[in-house]
LLM class flavin-dependent oxidoreductase (Chelativorans composti), 912 residues
Amino acid sequence: MTRKNTEQLHLGAFIVAGPGRPGGWRHPQSEDGWLTPDYYRRIAQTLEQGCFDLAFFPDILAVPNRFGGSHESQLRYGALGSLRLEPTQVLATMAAATNHLGLAATKSTSYYEPFDIARGFATLDHLSGGRAAWNIVTSFQDAEARNFSREQHIPREKRYDRADEFLEVTHKLWDSWADDALVADRAEPLFADPDKVNPILHKGEWFTVDGPLNVPRPPQGYPVLIQAGASDRGRDFAARWADVVFVTHYSLESAVAFAREMKARAAAHGRDPRHLKILPGITPLVGETQAIVEEKRKLLSGLIDPVAGLTTLSYHLDVDLSVYPLDEPLPHLKVPGVTGHYDEMREASDKAGLTLAEAGRMYANRYEGDFIGTPDVIADKMQEWFEAGACDGFMVMAAWQPGAFEEFVRLVVPELQRRKLFRTEYEGKTLRDHLGLPRPERGAWEGKSARLEAAE
Amino acid sequence: MTRKNTEQLHLGAFIVAGPGRPGGWRHPQSEDGWLTPDYYRRIAQTLEQGCFDLAFFPDILAVPNRFGGSHESQLRYGALGSLRLEPTQVLATMAAATNHLGLAATKSTSYYEPFDIARGFATLDHLSGGRAAWNIVTSFQDAEARNFSREQHIPREKRYDRADEFLEVTHKLWDSWADDALVADRAEPLFADPDKVNPILHKGEWFTVDGPLNVPRPPQGYPVLIQAGASDRGRDFAARWADVVFVTHYSLESAVAFAREMKARAAAHGRDPRHLKILPGITPLVGETQAIVEEKRKLLSGLIDPVAGLTTLSYHLDVDLSVYPLDEPLPHLKVPGVTGHYDEMREASDKAGLTLAEAGRMYANRYEGDFIGTPDVIADKMQEWFEAGACDGFMVMAAWQPGAFEEFVRLVVPELQRRKLFRTEYEGKTLRDHLGLPRPERGAWEGKSARLEAAE
Ligand SMILES: Cc1cc2nc3c(=O)[nH]c(=O)nc-3n(C[C@H](O)[C@H](O)[C@H](O)COP(=O)(O)O)c2cc1C
Ligand SMILES: Cc1cc2nc3c(=O)[nH]c(=O)nc-3n(C[C@H](O)[C@H](O)[C@H](O)COP(=O)(O)O)c2cc1C
């Protein structure tokens, strides 16, 4: 596939409402403000200076204890699941400090109720003037189930049935107010037109919801929907519902194959494939000179204990890696897991002759990947991926917070802008504007649900 | 009871994340910014200038349809349940715009999960530097149940069982990190001390929650707990768990009786009764001269359709009032309802010779009550209630938003300050500081649950 660089790329920032990527909190230029609004406000302003499309917060509803059956490694090493503030409040803080930046939070369809989620994102979309996005996850840790009064997680084959119905309900609720229902005519008086606010009377397998929502239709119609499912059903779900797919890859080849597959899936569902944006995660490590980059890499590498990475990988794979010897190659595992790329990772690791300990260290910060170097080297790589059709942009992860975002904005963004690969100012107002996505009309969701299709 | 005015009074502001009290949105000085952060930011700053203890957001999880079985009257008249943003996001916005103001949101124990609620308020307490409060409600509308996949609400006698266990779990989660668990020692490395973060392994009748929380212990230990239950069990619940009781009254006599009862109940549970703060709601109407007050009252009265009040009263009472004739006295009803004062209201209404329509209009804004007049008249009334032992302060409701808060701060607060009844500046930093409440140690909640007591 040759792809002309007619469009520009899109940039998201993957931010943790906590200590960030394992080891990153130990960096001399990292900051301890995880519990303060200033910390997030400042990141938001940095990203907006850099014209980023959106800030993205992952989430998890437990401190994982997959590694050795204990929370110890997560807490000691400040791993990804150790401390996490509730993300929509953090985004409300960021919304008040910015004017354009998109604002994405992760919420699970397995542990919340659709009325609550529809209302939360409608609220965020209003408070931000049309900048909200929802990263839809089905969750994958039994530890989360055990914080929500369930013995175990919903069986894998059922999770996406629930998610499909969950999205049917949230979309009906977002549509329950017509765009012009809120009148606020003081003289009449007519606050909202009762004929334009309708109950939804949803009755399904998982949910019974009367509606209407108590929040008017979101400025964007629906918030931008993000998804990152690895399984076949997860990909199908994304191709049906998602505006943005977040993914991680170990090579350009697998990235291109994935992007082709997803665009084809979207087209098969009757969608314009350009309206499904693919954003792989990268963890750039940038420096003014190659020598500085090398020294920075050494510094970071020394801050990471292998277990900090392995405890994260354990929870991403949902496998206890503490039972395998640290000084041997990665074990052969059949895992569905979060990454969907374990085999690829293991093969790459074997080829490089890495032990489990070394692979763990590598997994912790991923800065040993491809996006390392001076600004032009990183921009070259990004351009290569973009022009090869591997993606529509990137989700930038920070090896340490907030400094790595600042460096990216100061060093890499200008290089992308010089190449006309990235905007120099925002043109629209909403996140849909930034992403080049049309605003969905009322009812636009119909026909998306696999559950409804199967029932027909 | 003679009570010396040694303490000062406390002020909360009852704010609706929507059009406010019925009819208020029609006021020429009201503003339409319900969906924008500026609207809330400005109210927060006004209240902080006025040294208010806290901003308080009620909540409801449905557009009520109790009046005539339809949403029409709620929507048309912009009544209390017509439009409501999710309150914790609004508070996060306010937190970022203020330094001292306490921030209270209503969340129901009937429709959420304790992990989610504990995490949300821990997040708000951190992001605000110790200013979060939770108004605990058990909910009382079947319309809410029908938005949360339940045919009807949990039976009345079971709601507080669930609430008791809900609070056991949230307190265990808030205690799951010791106050000094977060170390962030980069050299060691030791992010959090695993010995000081403990699973809770709660197994009860309603909830099974392993924990620990993924947010450190809140700065205030626990967020300030507010409650407004009307029933006997509701009062008992408040006397056990609450720091603040929010209530409405129709007379000084009933207010004094209620306050005495609640303080006695708290003492019977082994608590210092001064640590249970009673804040009745009032809707002041203030003007520079009595003549201005009269004209303002006329203006407001003309903005309210009787049905705007009756649709609100219908949902507060959980009774369909549309079946009763508008031009006759209030019907005799046996209702548990939200107000707990229906009989008192009906008697007062009969004595004044009011029809249902007139009582509805009165209920809509309550500005026909006692707290009307020039600043000294209102301050007199407040002082009288305070010194009679009817309360520890007030929850100020605005006949229209945001103007009525501004007038109260400009006209009434200085008068209260002149009388040394109210602070002229904040002394402490946290909401517990403002309220004169000690910070609870880990484990301080033990012995509070009626459910556990009954099981012994
Ligand atoms: C890049 C990426 C990021 C993800 N972020 C989250 C997250 O923040 N929270 C979460 O619960 N799951 C997250 N997931 C997990 C997915 O939502 C999904 O549960 C997982 O990939 C398993 O996919 P499957 O359910 O389709 O098999 C992420 C997955 C990927 C690939
Ligand atoms: C002044 C006051 C304010 C209240 N605010 C709310 C509210 O915002 N949301 C809500 O669901 N219930 C609210 N309630 C209802 C109470 O929490 C409670 O459900 C109701 O008083 C019934 O009491 P009971 O359950 O003890 O019988 C309020 C009650 C009073 C008296």
